[in-house]
Fold each of these.
Amino acid sequence: MDFNQVLTAMVTPFNDQDEINYDETKRLIDYLIDNGTEGIVAVGTTGESPTLSHEEKLSFLKFVVEYVNGRVPVIAGTGSNNTKQSIVLTQEAEELGVDGIMLVTPYYNKPSQEGMYQHFKTIAESTSLPVMLYNIPGRTVVRLELDTVLRLAEVKNIVAIKEATGDLDLISQIIKETPDDFAVYSGDDNLLLPILSLGGTGIVSVASHIVGNEMNDMVQSFKSGEHAQATKIQQEIAPVIKALFSAPNPTAVKYALSKKGLNVGHVRLPLIALTEAEMTHVDDVVGRYY
């Protein structure tokens, strides 16, 4: 499965009644596809999945799949720290027609490397969909080590990993030692270019909500050998990336989208809106992209 190169971890729009805003979801999907996004990850962390009910996740995934209508791959965030529940959601997502699933490392219960191997392998074997692992110890406390990733890469339908450890040595070894068709995506917006230089495939991005075209241009420039141009783009968007993560994600990116005229609404508790000072900071840095 080719998930493409620039994937957006899409926000979930909410209306004033704290319900999913499906009309605005249409506008958001069209906007993303028109502005550099080559794949959509739905109901992930940036989509505020911890605050979505099971029913909301299924309803939203069904809507996204139908509205995207094959224009780009749709990947569902079906991972959790409960293996059985992840299997149920994965199988339901498959029935809805998603193109792949993303499985985050199990949070809170702190499994061993063997426990994580069995967790991911068991979920992968419950579906025919291609699977992208998601290694993000900053949120989950546990991290997949190299040997575990290599074992999991031997599972037929585990085809990719979103790497958000920030550990370029680990990422380099994953790229080197996994099969050539195993894709490694940056899970950190600011590390896209370094990971491309190590042989990575692309990115699962938050900042692509705002600088998707620029990220796409960076990937294309790098892969066509225009490394100086890719570096220039990275340097230009680096402050934007930093500003979009100046508050708990996706608070700042939802604010920036609203300034661009996309009414994606608020964040759900326990996240809270930006302060006036935080809004001013985002405006100062990101404003030229509004």
Amino acid sequence: MNGTAWGALAANLAVGAAVATAVLLAAFAVGTRLRLHRVVDVAWGIAFSAVATTTYLLSAGHGDPARRLLVAAATVVWGLRLSAHIARRSRGHGEDPRYTALLAKARGNRTWYALRTVYLLQAALVWLISLPVQVASYAAVPVGVLGVLGLIVWAAGLGFEAVGDHQLARFTEDPANRGRIMDRGLWAWTRHPNYFGDSLLWWGLYLLACTSLPTALLSLVSPVVMTALLTVGSGKRLLEKHMADRPGYAEYAARTSGFLPLPPRRDPAERRR
């Protein structure tokens, strides 16, 4: 058996869309009841995990067993870690300013506006970004050098994201750092180590789906869209807009790479000495 089971994959794509929608509709019900739409951020990783698990079960007998297991496990580990981290970070906090600002634009019923612009949009993004997970699971080709490289890239991305999140959490938990800008550890090399790691690991999952030219082209939208979301979409751009007026942030931004990890730039005054 060679290649990709395209017919079975097409059916899986339909089921994957339904699963992603179901998870985000459940989040909508919770968010509406709590009047706290930031719960959608917790549901984000859970939805990816649900799509990956469903895909693993449905692809039995179609794709290479090792590739199916690797791509499903990699997605679930990432998704559940991210959801648990966001849940811990947001505990005891009110609504995310991003959603407050978004819902302020609503004309008419804010609840249905939130459903369309927050939950259903994120369900569509989960389905689109999870394409490599679904495509890789239906490839009968054994894991080769490119697949191993993909796992290495995924692991590097997950490590970067997890370490960055941990460093920031420890920094913010220390009362002595209140009002200060986190510029230590990975945060000295990039202003967004968590976003960079997130992007990197999806490029790794993409490599796992590259078993032929058609699968590579079909799956390419995933890491491109994820990277765009993190850099010019709702990630880096909105966070930096929120942080712009914080004391010391302009100086931090001047010496620290915006996304790709790079050695910190020296202060202009120091270079003149």
